[in-house]
Structure formats: structure tokens, C-alpha cells
Amino acid sequence: MPTTNRSASTALTPEAIAESIAADETVASEPVALYALGLGDDALVLAHRLGEWITHAPELEEDVALGNIGLDLLGHARSLLTYAGSAWGTSEDDLAYFRGESEFRNRQLFEQPNGDFAHTIARQLFASVYFDGLYRALRRSTDPTLAAIAAKATKEVDYHLDHSVQWLLRLGLGTEESHRRMQRGLDAMWPFVGELFRAETGLPEGGVAHVPLDVTDGGTLGGVVVDLEPLRSAFDEIVPRLITDAGLTVPTVPFARGGGREGRHTEALGPMLAEMQVLARAHPGVTW
Amino acid sequence: MTSPGDSGTREIWPLWEVFLRPSRGLSHVHAGSLHAPDSTMAVRNARDLYTRRGEGVSIWVVPASAITASDPDAKGEFFESPEGKEYRHAVYYTASEAVPHL
């Protein structure tokens, strides 16, 4: 156990999950692995997009903030992919670097290009509301690994949400130009909101019960995965209010067809994966 | 004459000074400075930049423009050592024998 100057924490690390898998103590069933893979891909793809901002943010401080959020998400992705891999005997790196576009299960919002700063904030706002509700509920999953990953992630996504809201307000209530751009960002990302709350169709039948979302922490344990219906209602309550508080208009553009969980993606994902995977594919099997 | 990184008129994020009180500390200590559009964002940026290793429990941010500093060129007179002013220091008392642990 390496010593750090952090106070001792019981937060689950990807390394600890990998150790537990190696010791045959943790093995995800196929449906749970597919579920974890979807959540892991959401976090991985968004983390990569945020990484593209490094050294390009409007200010040094914002470079650090976006980098922090990206690092948090990459941490979630590593844990989730490591756990998913236990079902198939694959590592987090195998899953990240050696799957093609149609094998990626992330929802389409997360692969959307960064656009300008307002586009990125709009994407992050929707993503953070989704993650926040999801991980809060997932803490009560009957799957102990998923519950532990969610417990660690909850604190982090709370902060991501706060960051997005602060910038939504500043851009929305800032100058005429920042207001116009923030509205355009919201309009551009809105079509991908619908897909976030669609049931997980890619999961095999049976074997997965749903966790009913109870906003109080005394909810009854119902199963492994989070029921997305209540998350949708929470989103519909929170986000329009945030948008109008920032002096902006709730978009009315129709939702896109979606299909990320089944491996159907927008044209943005392919080039992103090509860049992300090029080195690993040029030197398969090396350690780094 | 601009300093490196100074973008002149484009610079609309003022400078803030950051003071942190560590979890076991008694007082806030100057940790560094940062740019932020307003005080709310300054506190959040300070959390990002100066408390990544859990070292702080309390953050103060102050606009750099609100701080008045002593004149660095006036060091001599301003901070003149009190040499030769023994009457200012209680150095000539002798300890009473009846008070051993003074």
C-alpha cells in the first residue's frame, strides 16, 4: 500500500478491483459486465473529449478545472472497465484500445465534439446531471463493486455539476455574445438528452433487477442497475430551472435517434477512437 | 511593458490572492494567487489549484487590488531593527529564586 499524504480513505481504486479479480474474488456476470461497460464507456469517452481541452482552455484556471473533471471521469472509467473485463478475462486497456466503434456502448452525448467553450459546458451540464442522479442511486446497488464505485464517484460528480452550473450562469447572464453562444451550445447538445434516459436495451434478458431511485437514502434495495425513469423526472425538474435561471431558453429541438448502447454512434466517435487507440494498436502487447 | 502571459486589454479576469487554513492549522497562510472572473469562481479555482491533496479546510480569496503592501524600497527605515533600544525589551529582569520554572 503506497503511502500518500491523503488521509486514509476506503475509496475503491481500479488497482484494488484488478487485484480482487486476479484473486478470483470478483467476477461480474455477463449482464452486469455489459452494464458496467456502458457506464465505463460513457465516462471514458467524455474524459477523452475533456482531455482535448488541455492547453486550449480560455484561462489557465479553467484548463485545470476541465483537466480535473476529465481525470475524475477517467478514474470512473478505469474502475468500471476493469470490473466489466472480469467477465471476459480482459483488462481495462484491452477494452479501451482494442474495441471498434460499433463495440463501444457509450451514449451519443459523450462523444459530441467540444465545439466552443459553451458547447462543452452544455454537454458537461447534461452529463453531470445524469451522472449525479445515476451514481447516487447506484450506491444502493446489490452489486457491491458497482455500489463502491458509485460511492466514490458521487462526491466527484457533485463538483462537476457545480462547475457546469456556475459557467451556465456566467455565460447565460454574461455578455450578449456569451449568452448567444451558451444558447447555441444548449441547442446543439439537447438532441442527445433523450437517449440518456432510455432503458438499457443491450442487456441480456433476466439476471438484472432495477434499483428504484429513492431520493432519500433509505430506499429499498431492488437490484443491480439503476432505474432510469426517476432520473428522467429529476432531470426534467432540475435542468429547465437551471437554464431559465441563467436567462436562457429550454431547447425544443427533437431528440436524436440514439443507439449508443447498441454500438450505433454519430460520425464524431470514429475519428476520436482512431486518435485514442493509434499507439496501442501500433504496438499491441507492450507494457507501459 | 507587459509581463509574460499578460494579454493586455483582453485580461478581464482579475488576480486573486489565496489564503488556506490547513486542517490542523491555526491560521490562514498565503498559498498563492490565481485569476478568476469573480469571488465565487475564485474560491472554486483555489480548491482546484491549492487543495488537491486535502491540505485545506478553509479558503479565503481576496482581490489582489484590495491588498495594500508595505513599500519594498523602504525596508531600511520601515523595519529597522530595534538594536540599541533595550528599554523596549524586557531583557534586564532577573528571575526570582522562588519561581523556578519561569
From TrEMBL, chain B:
It comes from the Bacteria. This is Ring-1,2-phenylacetyl-CoA epoxidase subunit PaaB. The lineage of its organism: Bacteria, Bacillati, Actinomycetota, Actinomycetes, Micrococcales.
